Amino acid sequence: MLTYLARRVLVLLVTLLVASLAIFIVLEVLPGDAALLILGIEAQDDTLAALRTQMGLDRPAALRYLAWIGGLASGTTGISHTYDVPVSQLIGERLTLTVPLALIALLVSTLIAIPLGMFAATRRGRPGDYGVMGFSQIGMAIPNFWFAILSILIFAVALGWFPASGFPGWDAGLGTALWALVLPALSLALPEAAILARVTRTSVLDTLGADYVRTARAKGLAPRRVLWGHVLRNALIPMTTIIGLQFAFLLAGSIVIEAVFALPGVGRLIFQAVSQRDLVVLRDVILLLVTLVVVVNFLVDVAYTAIDPRTRRGS
Amino acid sequence: MKTMRIAAAIAVASGLAFLATPGAQAQQKDSLTIGLTLEPPHLDPTAGAAAAIDEIVYANLFEGLTRIDDNGAVQPQLAESWDVSGDGLVYTFTLQDGVKFHDGTNFDADDVVFSLDRARADGSVNAQKQLFAAIDTVEAVDARTARITLSRPEGALLFNLGWGDAVMVARESAATNKVAPIGTGPFKFDRWVRGSQIRLVATDDTRAIRKVTFRFVPDPSAQIAALKAGDIDAVSNLQAPEAVIALQADPNFEVAIGSTEGETILAMNNSRAPLNDIRVRQAIAHAIDRQAIIDGAMFGFGTPIGTHFAPHHPAYVDLIATYPHDPARARALLADAGQSDLKLTLKLPPPTYARRGGEIVAAQLKEAGITVEIIPVEWAQWLEQVFRGTDYDLTIVSHTEPVDIGIYARDTYYFNYDSPSLKALMARLNNTSDQAARNRILGQAQRTITSDSVSAYMFQLAKLGVWRKGLKGMWRNAPVQATDVTGVRWE
Amino acid sequence: MSIIADTTRRGWKSQLLRHPNFLIGTVLTGMLILVALVSLVWTPHAFDAVAITQRMQGPSAAHWLGTDHFGRDIATRLMIGASNSIMVGVVAVGIGLVIGVSLGLLAAARGGWVDDLVARGSDVVFAFPAIVSAILITAIFGPGAVNAIIAIGIFNVPVFARVARGAARQVWGQEYARAGLAIGKSPSAVTRDHILPNIAPVLIVQATIQFAVAILAEAALAYLGLGTQPPAPSWGRMLFDAQTFMTLDPKLAILPGLAIALAVLGLNLLGDGLRDALDPRLRTERIG
Questions:
Q1: B365 and B481: one domain?
Q2: Which pLDDT does position C128 carry in this prediction?
């Protein structure tokens, strides 16, 4: 197990290193000059050169890459070209919106999906099952940004229950802030709930057919106790996998939803950094998202192996 | 449809009201929240071209020797008066007495020397360094007197000193102005919640407005929702002309349609075949229908122009009739030039006027037999490819600098237009100080570029200001990029 | 798990018809394809015929679904949007199929370091959220339909590589594949004669699902302003344009979204129906 873990950690680090190199190279070839963008159309060649030196853009690429990775390894991030503050501070501020938003969406989708999925599994082939599966199909087919636009039209514009967009900030009060996140979180949660409901149904059905469940039933345990005690516990493994993966995807997927609701989150930061050519910010945000995905995958793999040692030799 | 629209408006007005924080109404007498489309990258107007910087700090936080008012006129600011020598080369400024920076240090002539020398130094990162090109030396005669000596006459010096890029900064704080700006204005920096808002507070307790919050609302439809909900009191320039119509009918809001210095043009690459043929450029000018573009892209807000000059300026010459909308004439000119199957690219930067206007222009050029491929670009690419690299056929952009017809006389500019007669006119303008004579030269310059059909001139951008009834003193026009709240009060 | 049961021989046609998912999916997908094909030869109006004076009109005989903010015919633009979506799906899935399946088959046939390289490479590509990769690709090469399709296609490569590799390894474990090697066939010959035909059903189902994913992804990119560019109509782009007009005219925001949802629903149902019919235990990946 230890050698396996060591091997996996090594793979994780190599993956991140390759990813960081890929990010750096991609940003190097990104057309557009940050200095020109800052100084605008009346910029003169000497002012541009002075600004490029100030921003460190005149150093060789290899040196800048090493400085970046070295800095990250020692726990420091660069200074944003446009905002002139440390990138860690910028990202930190944005995460206070994006992470809660993703967590709320995850919670909502789980709370909707697990009861629905179990309900459908216990009524396999009956109208209830078809109803849930129909909902799931529709939920997966609706683009989340369209759902977001429709929810603005109905609940913000026509009914006026929620703000149409924007985020007042956590210091505006917890209630006010959460209220502004209701529609975005619902929009993010819907397709995820649809997928999770299907996974729940399938895993519960798989478990229901397993020997130990039959045994438990044969022993005369109440169906309800079998369902919640044995079946759900075992079905949780595939469901946790999906939930874990969904969290990473929700963080990235919120880019579109943040655009619809004009929320100042990580997604908006990426957009802003691309249009401002603020590569110092961009490389760190992307690497952060990549790291999240890789780490979640790693944890899922390790958890699987801990449960079932047979999977140790690759999938 | 109409009932639906009204129903929606009522629902927004009544429904969103309860979301406004309860205290907002009572405090509104001395606080003001303004919605801005773009968040500034930083707050130092002497180190960047972003208009969003000036929209927050101009006149409010930073001040220059002179300032520009709502009508585009030069007014005294930190310099209370000035003398100009007979040859127009020496400007002597008498500074206001008792002015302090926000950190408590005094403002004096040494700060003038520091600020202007810093802006025009070798390592300067000032985006408008050319404003100071004529300056030879800046000296402090005594604490309250500063003298600027020019190497050549510069008729626009006092105007140039009123730009946001020429504001006065202190030696101690200049390096940190990007994140903690220290100026001399009536409002000082309070806090910045990145991605959300910037707050300024009055330095003087007796001001009508004591707290100004700039909230960043990138989406126009969100700006309207925020206005109606009472989250913001004013938007100085609304980016969604389609929304103005609904707001004009709303008794709670005042809508002010003002002018800007933005000539919105369909620029052409004059040195690239076949656009180097004047007949092709004239054909394009005939092919566009200005009013349809204004109606379609800007919902009717905007003034047609026939040349690169603001219609509200005294020197403006109405040349719209030179190229009336006439697709048949355009086709004839193209046939004449042997270009009956012309294909061109149109690169469009992000603003609404360009992206929406570009779609309409493409449709209009199609009617004249020109196939247009639209290529949307970000500002970074526009600057690099179109502006610097002049790698384009057609582009749409609004030139927002005041009285900037001189760009047509530059040796290298993205129009790639080279006209000795225009260059001669501009040289004469620089040596002319009589206003009537200057206006005559400017008129000739306008006729020159229009008869050469350098660009197709479309319309002057309007400024669509919206604010809550009772708010007085907001700027109607936008002669410079600014949200000057120094004269604003609630009634 | 035994992925390839011998259902293919047991009257799969009659099986298919018993699945309502498959039926509804076929009808919806068929309509999508039909509308797209018709749009190639005929539309009610020209898609870029601007008429400012007739903007945002309701449905009428001249304009079945009304007009948009430039007075263009919405029905026409939705029809061409359908062919745009199909083109995106075909090309993006095609890229994924050709490159991804080749890599997956290669990894399964060779094993060893090749296998490791493909697996790790897939991990790296997978680690980049699709939307982030797409934003970067369009930032480098400019926004546009082609670049958006390439971005979605690249994302499809590891999806198909994983599915193909997993399924191919299963088949390689079977007696008859090993036997092929034993009688002197080359690994590529075995792959061609035995592996590929056996994993084809898995790939078909996955392709159907990725087709739907691609349509959704293109719509999202176009909505962000990174996909198909005006005046060419795309459903996502129509939603983007509608956003500031939706309080004036809600249909501008409703119709294109409905089109996307129906197309994706049809493809998903078709994919599910195919899977149920080909093998109830067939596992495919669904990446949101």
A1: no
A2: 86
Question: Which range (A298-312, B87-101, C223-237) has the least confidence?
Answer: A298-312
Q: How far off is chain A from B395, nearest CA to CA, in Å?
A: 15
Domain boundaries A87-314, corresponding CATH code = 1.10.3720.10
Query: C108 lies in which domain range?
Result: 34-43+51-287
What whole-number distance in Å separates Cα of residue A246 and Cα of residue C1? 25
**ipTM summary value:** 0.86
Q: Cβ contacts (< 8 Å) between C143 and chain A: which residues? A: none
Which one of A42, A171, A258 makes the best mutation probe of the B interface by having the most chain B beta carbons within 10 Å?
A42
Residue B365 structure tokens? 């050029």
CATH code of B172's domain: 3.90.76.10
Which of the four pLDDT bands, split at 50, 70 and 90, describes residue A313? very low
Q: Looking at chain A from residue 56 to 85, which residues have their Cβ under 8 Å from any Cβ of chain C?
A: none
Cα distance between residue A299 and residue A248, in whole Å: 12
Mean pLDDT of A231-259: 78
pTM across the whole model: 0.84
In a domain, C118, yes or no: yes
pLDDT digits (tens, 9 = 90+) for B304-332: 999 999 999 889 999 999 999 999 999 99
Query: Does any CB of chain C come closer than 8 Å to the CB of residue A151?
Result: no
Neighbours of B40 (CB within 10 A): 24
Residue B364 lies in a domain: yes
A31 contacts on B by Cβ (under 8 Å)? 380-381, 384-385
Q: Mutate one of B248, B353, B359, B373 to test the C interface: name it (highest C CB count within 10 A).
A: B359
Residues B409 and B469 in one domain: no
Q: Which burial class, exposed, middle or buried, applies to C99 when counting CB atoms under 10 A from its CB (0-12, 13-18, 19+)?
A: middle
What secondary structure does DSSP assign to B108-131, as a single string?
-HHHHHHHHHHHHSTT---TTGGG
- Estimate to the nearest angstrom the gap between the alpha carbon of B225 and the chain centroid: 25
Nearest-Cα residue of chain B relative to residue A85: B179
Here the CATH number for the domain that contains residue C255 is: 1.10.3720.10
Domain boundaries, chain A: 2-73, 87-314
B470 and B357 in one domain?
A: no
Amino acid at site A123: R
The 10s digit of each residue's pLDDT in B329-378 is 999 999 999 998 999 999 999 888 999 999 999 999 999 999 999 988 88
B397 and B271 inside one domain:
yes
Same domain flag for B283 and B431: yes
Instruction: Say whether the peptide bond before residue C187 is cis (omega within 30 degrees of 0).
Output: no
| Residue B52 within any structural domain of the chain | no
Number of compact structural domains in chain C: 1
Q: Is residue B245 part of a domain?
A: yes
Residue from C165, C133, C126 nearest C152 by CA: C133
Full residue range of the structural domain in which residue B73 is found: 58-176
CB spacing of B240 vs C250 below 8 angstroms: no
DSSP state at residue B96: P
The verdict on B168 and B125 lying in the same domain is yes
Question: What was the pLDDT predicted at C183?
Answer: 87
Mean pLDDT (chain A) is 85
Asked whether residue B46 is domain-assigned, the answer is no
Inter-chain residue contact B222 with A166, CB threshold 8 Å: yes
Cα–Cα dist B211/C176, whole Å? 81
Chain center to CA of A60: 34
What pLDDT was estimated at residue A52?
A: 86
pLDDT (tens digit per residue) in A150-174: 998 899 878 888 887 778 788 878 9
- Residue B152 binned pLDDT confidence (cut-offs 50, 70, 90): confident
Domain identity same for B478 and B419: no
Could you give the number of structural domains in chain B? Answer: 3
Q: Which pLDDT band, with edges at 50, 70 and 90, does C228 fall under?
A: confident
Same domain, B248 and B397: no
Whole-number Å distance between alpha carbons of A122 and A114: 12
Q: What is the CATH number of the domain that holds B207?
A: 3.40.190.10
Instruction: Give the position of tokens 């995807």.
Output: A249
Q: Give the number of B-C residue pairs with CB atoms closer than 8 Å.
A: 64
Chains touching C (at least 3 CB pairs under 8 A) are A, B
